[in-house]
Amino acid sequence: MESQVAEAALAMVRPTTASSTRSAASSFLEQWTRTPDAWPVYVKWLQSFHVDSSNGSKDANTEMLGMQLLCLTLMLAKIRREVPRNAEKNSEITAAIQYEVWSFLQAVQSPQLVSPLCSCLTALVVRNGQIDDLLIKISLSQESISKPFPEAIVLKILACLPPELDSCGDLTTPQVTAILFPYFEVVLDTVRKALFNSSSRSSALECLKEWTQTCHITLSHLNSPICGEADKLLPVMIQILSQPSECGEEIWILASHALAEAILIPTDSCTSSRQAAVAAMISAVSSQGFIAAPFQHCVAHQWDDGAHALASLMCTLVSEEVDDLCAEPADTYLGFLLQIQAHPRTQVALTVLDCWLTVQDIPTNSRHEHWKGALFVTIAEGLVKRAAYTSSFTTWEEELDLDEQEFTEYRRMVSDVLVNCYFLLRVRFLQQMVTVIVDAVSCHDWALMESALFSLSTVFREVCARLKAKGALPSLVKDRTETAHEMMRLVEQLCGSDSAMAASAAAQQHVLVLGAACQFMGLYGQAWNVYCSEEAILRILAYLHAALQIRSNSQSDVCIVATAASRAIKSIYITCANKLVHCDSIFSCMQASMEGALSTGIRDAMAAVAEGCTRLTVQMKDSAHVARSFESILVPLLQNSEAALNNITSAELDVQRELAADTLTKYLHVLHVLIRFCDTQGDIVSPLTHVLTVVWPLLEKAAIQCRAYESILEEVLAVHKQLLSNIPKLMAPRFSEIVKFVVEAFENSKHPCTLDYLACAVESFSPMDGNDEQSFQELLAHVSKITTTYLSTEKRPDMCPKLIQGFFEMNQRYILFCPMALVRCTEFPKIISLAVQCLTECKGERESTRATLNFLGQIFGWRSLRLPDTVSRALENDATIIDEQLANYGKTVTSTCINMLAGGPQMLWPAISDCVFSIIFNVIVTNTGASGVTNTAVAHGWIYSSLSSCNTSTGTPLPSETCQQIVNILFALVQKGSKSKPKAKMLLTDYAKICKGEIASNALLSYYLDSNDIQH
To answer: Are 121 and 161 in contact (CB under 8 A)?
Structure first.
């Protein structure tokens, strides 16, 4: 066995080993190390490692080092896994291993082995209960050791103790702290002495961090005499973090992390000793360059990790002591915090943001002047500069100085600070931003202007809330008036006397400036509605129309401006509707909006403008104005759509036809959005009649192209579906024609969108409302035959999940709105059979499987649905049809559902649980007499056999007692009726978690505690 282990270990460490051989060796070693026979081999391995192999070849030395590291790694895992803490059986073998590890650590030559050896040693010491002996040997009485460890190894052993003790599963964090706390002074003294030795300084700081974190060593402890002597540790730490030349980045990082851990320990809060420690650190910032000097050194050498650690330390100190610090002058270190904010690396600059947010939690009257308005004016100024693009920025693909992800993250994170700046400064903040914009225009600094506009857009909700405030206090009225004045001044600055020329000038500065200006105008729509005249709002819209006309060689530039401008147009049409509806020129304005949006060719931009125009139109009270408004919107849309249709038929190249079809698809989507936002209340029905008349020829022509282009089919049916939802009565005369077209399209394409339309039709023309049930029954039979034939001859269910989803979602509509047509359909048994087949063959694909489960759950659990009494009585008469299908497939569905709970996607658990509950509920509700008992017994058998045959994550089924527990609890809950459904679903979820090993089976006891009806 020893030779086999050695060969497997060599195969693992040799770089020339084939991957298959290495994988086999890894599996062998993993199995071997879990056996009791591994312990003696580890002892022999450790003994052999004492032999100095430094005289061998380089390859041999490398292999030996790899073997040693592998041995220590496997052994450490075995110790942590198998050796309990303070157990009597931890005797001879663990003592032998501990002795060999100790001896090996004394003779170790490779630095790479020190860390794993220390981990193994401390793991054994902790589990053997020998912490006292270890600390006496290595810390208090090193003279007693025949060959003392070097100081760095002592510190490494000390650093390993807290996390190793914390990893023991039988100890809580307070217990770990209690065990280690008696030794912390000895450790701190050892650390303090080691800090004066440059060779062991990093090990000392790592040790300090681990003990501070685990033993909750506070600032007061660090600033108190150690072991009865006058020496303190905090002054040494301050000295290390004040020396830019003697220490390097690694030392500063370790020292910052260790000291930050002590600052975060709150147990000495508000004590005089902590206050003295904080005062010493704050004073050292100006007197000794504490933190600041190393930070400057890191900035100069571009040591970003060091700068981040130092910045985090300073910001942690300020944030944790903000109550006291805000009451005192801060000129000595506020400048340093502002330097951190201006750091070019995002990870460093972000650290100070929490400081500013924490300061804002302190009441203004409790702050020193240094922490009031003037500071936040400076902060806002710095944030605007820091959040600006580089002046040479064009696109992210070409940008070399900025990282897109970091830049986006920074802008997201500064939002809260900018809002806080506005809350404190109010109109002063707006004046500051407007001044920045004016100065940036004069200096041709487009990046700063864009950043200031971004800052104003960030605080739009708060500014608009102030403008809409109805208080009459003089200070509020004054601020509201001045705020409105600044907003109007900025609009005047942006739009100028000629809106089109102003938009062009903004684009010439940079396309991002124009995009930011458009976004700003859209977000402040509520302000324009209150304080702008109709003419001023139209000037803003003219600016946005001009922005839509801006063209560039870069499509991304066009997209940026078009998206911002279209959203702004939508926002202004919605928020300023009560003014614009009375404006005579609004019709030409809306037509210009639509023409501008359509000219961009960007789907989302066109849809946004269409939505805004439509929502403005439905606010008009005069039906003539409504009709005229719709005409203004539809004319350019229909003209462009006709042109796209003509291009499809007349284009000679396939590429041209594809492009025209894509364009038509976008226009149809815009039409869909327009109809969607048409409210059918009141006088709007008549204009929709006009809309239907106008767009019907377009829909008929577009339908001709559906056979060649499925994207067109999808949008045409989306429009029809929206019309059917909005105006079913107006669509009724055309319904048979549309259904014929949809069925034909389904026969040819099998596209899911056709089924979506049929589902909508079932809901809109439900036989419950007196419509013809027979026609819907025949429709379902025809569609079902096509579907089942297609899935049995051409494609399997797992190859077309969208089709499966659409088919069963349509059947769900039948259950809710036309249940008799479904149950009496000649294809009903095949529909159920297909659903059962899809549960298995869709292989847990989320949407299709969920639709199938929901269908089965609703059809088998129809008695729990809220259906009209007449429909319920009719279904009761035909209930045997459903019950027959349940008898045929209940066991299969139940087994599949239970298996999916044990190993399927967690996202499907609710749908699976619904289905299982519905099956059992249906069985129990139909129980009458002896046959009822038999049915219940059958259902018991379904569930129990499914549970007992289903394997868990360990590869074995649950114990029979646990399976019986689940069955008893589940049936007891279902017998209480639908009110117990949430709890039954929770039980099935717990079953799934038990199978995955996430919870233990004793979690089922809670169900017995909550219910007196469950029998043990």
So the answer is: no
- Show the tokens assigned to 516: 């930011």
First-last CA distance in the chain: 50
Both tokens of residue 663?
């364009």
Write the single-letter amino acid at 72: L
Structure tokens at 315: 């910001």
In 200-282, at which residue ranges do the beta strands (DSSP E only) sit?
none
Strand residue runs (E) in 609-700: none
| Tokens read off for 278 | 């904080």
Query: How many Å apart are CA 644 and CA 11, to the nearest integer?
Result: 67
Q: How far apart are CA 889 and CA 540, in angstroms?
A: 65
Burial of 607-628, coded b for 16+ CB within 10 Å and e otherwise, reads: bbbbbbbbbbbbebeeeebbbb
Residue with tokens 């903004």: 506
Tens-place pLDDT, residues 836-861 = 999 988 878 899 999 999 999 999 98
Asked whether 984 and 973 are in contact (CB, 8 A), the reply is yes
480 phi and psi angles, rounded to 5 deg: -65, -45
Could you tell me which of 423, 345, 347, 409 has the C-alpha nearest to residue 379? Answer: 423
Answer yes or no: is pLDDT of 1013 > 70: no
* Vertex 228: Cα angle to 224 and 234 (nearest 5): 25
Residue 931 CB burial class (10 angstroms; 0-12, 13-18, ≥19): exposed
Structure tokens at 131: 């912490």
| CA 468 to chain centroid | 34
Give the CB-side neighbour count of residue 718, counting CA atoms within 13 A: 18
Q: Give the gyration radius of the chain's Cα atoms.
A: 38
Task: Measure the CA–CA gap between 261 and 213, rounded to whole angstroms.
Answer: 6
User: DSSP 3-state helix, strand, coil percentages of the chain (rounded to 5)?
Assistant: 80, 0, 20
Which pairs with CB-CB distance under 8 Å and at least 24 residues apart come from 949-955? 949/895, 950/898, 950/899, 950/902, 950/995, 951/902, 951/903, 952/902, 952/994, 952/995, 952/996, 952/997, 953/995, 953/996, 953/997, 954/997
Output the 3-class SS for 572-619: HHHHCHHHHCCCCCHHHHHHHHHHHHHHHCCHHHHHHHHHHHHHHHCC
Number of H helices, E strands in the chain: 53, 0
Query: 987 to each of 922, 994, 998, how far by Cα in Å?
Result: 19, 10, 14
Mean pLDDT, to the nearest integer, of 158-162?
93
Summarised one tens digit per residue, pLDDT across range 899-915 is: 999 988 899 999 999 99
Cα separation, 962 vs 556, whole angstroms: 60
Instruction: Give the pLDDT confidence of 61-74 residue by residue, as tens digits.
Output: 788 888 899 999 99
- Here the tokens at position 70 are 């592998």
Residue matched to tokens 């023309």:
765
Residue 50: CB atoms within 10 Å: 12
173-176 contacts, C-beta under 8 A, 24 or more apart: 176/214
Whether the Cβ atoms of residue 122 and residue 164 lie closer than 8 Å to each other = yes
- Whether pLDDT at 520 is above 80: yes
Which pTM value belongs to this model?
Answer: 0.83
Res 53: pLDDT:
45
The answer to whether 244 touches 297, Cβ cutoff 8 Å, is: yes
**Chain CA centroid to CA 360, Å:** 28
Residue 556: both structure tokens together = 């991304």
- Helix (H/G/I), strand (E/B), else coil: 794: coil
Nearest Cα neighbor of 714 from 669, 667, 647 is 669
CA 439 and chain centroid, separation: 40
The alpha helices in 750-800, defined as continuous H runs, are: 752-764, 773-793
Q: Which residues pair with 957 in a beta bridge?
A: 951
3-class DSSP state of 957 = strand
